[in-house]
Amino acid sequence: MPACCMRVIITSFPLKKVLPVHISPNDHKQYRYLTLANELKVLLVHDADAPRSAAALSVQIGHFDDPDDRQGMAHFLEHMLFLGTEKYPRIGEFQTFINRSGGSNNAWTGTENTTFFFEVSPHAFEEGLDRFGQFFTAPLFNEEAVDKERQAVDSEYKLKLNDDVRRLYQVHKETINPSHPFTKFSVGDLTTLDDRNNTSIRDDLLHFYQTHYSANRMGLVLLGSQSLDKLEAYAHDFFSHINNTGLAKPDIPVPLVTEKEAKQFIQIEPIKDIRKLTLSFTMPSVDAYYQQKPLSYIAHMLGNEGTGSLMSVLKSRELINTLSAGGGVNGSNFREFTISLNLTLKGLEHTDDIVKSVFQYIALIQQQGMEEWRYEEKKSVLELAFRYQEKSRPLDTVSYLVMNLLHYAPDDVIYGDYMMAGYNEPLIRDLLAYLRPENMRLVLAAQGQHYDQTAQWYATPYSVTPFTDKQLADWTNITHDPEHLLSEKNPYLCERLTPHELAPESELPPQLIQDLPGFRLWYKQEHDFRVPKGVIYVAIDSPHAVNSPRNIVKTRLCVEMLLEAINEKAYPAEIAGMSYNLYAHQGGVTLQLSGFSEKQPLLMKLILECFASRTFDEKRFNNIKAQMLRNWRNAAEDKPISQLFNELTGLLQPNNPPYPVLIEALESIDVDELPVFVESMFAELHIDTFVYGNWLKEDTLQLAEILKDAFRVTDQLYGESQRPLVQLNKSGTLNYEINGKHADSAILMYYQSREISPRKIAVYTLANHLMSTTFFHELRTKQQLGYMVGTANLPLNRHPGLILYIQSPVAGPLLLSEAIDDFTNAFSLVLLELNEEQWQASKQGLIAQISEPDTNLRSRAQRFWVSIGNKDETFSQRKKVIEALKNLNRADMVRFIVEIVKPRTANRLVMHYQGQAHQNLESLDIGQPIESITEFQQNAR
Ligand SMILES: [Zn+2]
Questions:
Q1: pLDDT tens, 448-485?
Q2: For the Peptidase M16 middle/third domain, which residue ranges apply (predicted)?
Q3: Whether domain 733-937 has CATH 3.30.830.10
Q4: Do the beta carbons of residue 472 and residue 574 sit within 8 Å?
Q5: Alpha helix ranges (H) inside 258-320
Q6: Residue 100's pLDDT is what?
Q7: Which of 50, 878, 912, 914 is the most exposed place for a label (fewest CB within 10 A)?
Q8: Does CATH number 3.30.830.10 belong to domain 3-239?
Q9: Ligand 1 centroid vs 32 CA: distance in angstroms?
Q10: Helical segments of 119-198, H only
Q11: The domain 259-391+405-467: what is its CATH number?
């Protein structure tokens, strides 16, 4: 056929079909759904206010598709696509571009999907898409990059060797149907990705890519302030060349679990001291019912936490600490439905009774719990959430929409997650019928059980035992448990859905509307997002709460006990779209409420009642104490780098002790000490409150009266608690070592600014921004020192801070510190080598990040609250930092690197961890060792 005819054919047929999309009345974005000629599904989102433009592409290929002898291939390919394409061959080019453009990017490989996403400043979007599009049309798989990157995959695997999530997941894989692709090893390592006699990994990689990466199995979402037409042009320009093989995604021909794998009790040894019991039921995929969400109904009933619920009853019998229902793995031909329980020590002895109780509750649902109003309650909550859906970050938006694009009908791409299209009792009953003993796998992860097998890849000890006839009989022939109750109608569901009229002063920043001794009230009616929601912060400062590690621990105990007391009563409020949190910090504790505002006063009253009736039940106390001890002791199994971060803040902030100090204090605390402690704490309070959102001033003042009553605030003279910080000043290099059982070594270098001026904040933030990509590229990509490599901007108690860190399976702290020193020594040269355009682009990228508008009411509330805490009472700090950034020139930054960061002159704190694999290496001996923490903290203020 002559070429001219081809052209005629193409232009005379539509290249795309455009379909409508159902959206929320509160959603002012515009959408366009279309399919390109190569069958690529595309969703375009125009958001006039989007601070950044974002793209996500997902392909229906995942580790299920790995060749049996090349496990980890899909994951490896995900890594490789970032590392050079025909038009942009240089390794690291994409990363540099993203960083320079004030953006971020990531990717993940799942069971049946691989997803890539990035966001950048709007002006850089087209350039970004040009690079991104190349991933799917012209990757190079450069030899050198292939070799380096499989090392990176290998260290990613090794990094997680002691991660219980992975270790338990591997047992899961080994105990289901061995011919199901779920059994494959998803990460990959040097043995699965090696070069072999007849094939190189690169050849196999190419083959895998060419076979599977096909446009008809992809979805693309583009979001930005660009017009829909512009976005559509981008989709055509950069993605219409993706090859279409026309091959559909293959079906999985075998079930996840057969007769053989059901009815089994699986015991697994975790590394951390956890006690988790999971009842797991396998059923066919329910994806087709996403409009009706029958499993949500079941999860809603089983996961209820109110009075008489399964969780409440098991808790009152001291068998469990938490319960959650409705989790489990999901795939194109299967769905697991799980009920997971965290057991107490007593619960560990009574697992069969717990299982029995679950089946009793399931029977109760079958007999009395099938009622349409329950479905309607859940539906009204979701409708409300949809109607007042708030924006999330562009990057988050595109990454969930791209999954919806591949799984939902075009009209439901936005609405699908929220829709409950109708109560279908027969369908719910059908699914509920899968929740029976003969279809169950019971998994117990707890230390010291019986094991006779070892899992591949992660060496997890485990065992598999069939249920006994007695167990099956006990769980099948059950009677009603009179303590079990179904939930009642929810009093917290909101009725008034339109936000209040705006008062004239609502445009102003937050105002201090009450300033009394010991009590300050900030208020702002929200004028921008116009949703019927509110956020309330109540910071309760008490010097007594934080003046010793022992009191700090008592404060945390009280917080946990209170949270537990509130939980059961406040559960319906959570269901109705409200949330609350209570947390301890360096000054005392803070209570936070968020969500729909109409019934917030009701929730506040409930919480204050719990405060007032504080009871310190000994059994509950012992249970909470045991849980806290266990969590803190488990932290010793955390990754070395996490441990270093924890010890760093513990060392520098005396009111924020590290785990070992907390553990020591907690061990000797008795329940009898708490009432006296709370009284002393209440005797010297300072309260700062911020009420924000759909709140009227008179209602706010009323709420303030309730708060003052509850906390007995009467002209007290207490100011806020001090929040001391150890200042490094002219310390030179300080050195602190921690020890542990991990194989990897880790190092962290911390630089602190004494001043807290906007200019210093600008310098430290920009230094981190400038260093991050080069640091990652040099130490991870080029030198392959480890998988966790980076820089961070860590302000502590308002003092700017800069951190460089590495966790390494291959090198000890000495070598790591030398590598970092080499980097910092050379970095001023890197700065000098940037051309003017690159320098300006970097700065602009950071400014764009900082000046990004708040996406929703919660994030704006959070920003105001941080300003209040930082004494930025004109709410202008951010503007000042941006001004300071604009004025920084390259010489300023070179001076900062040479004078402050360079090892020869630096005042810095070096934290390190010598891993078990590096015990024979020479240890790191630099600077002044910190031997006594108490002494070190004496110059804190
Ligand atoms: Zn990875």
A1: 999 999 999 999 999 999 999 999 999 999 999 999 99
A2: 386-660
A3: yes
A4: no
A5: 294-302, 310-316
A6: 86
A7: 878
A8: yes
A9: 32
A10: 125-135, 143-159, 164-174
A11: 3.30.830.10
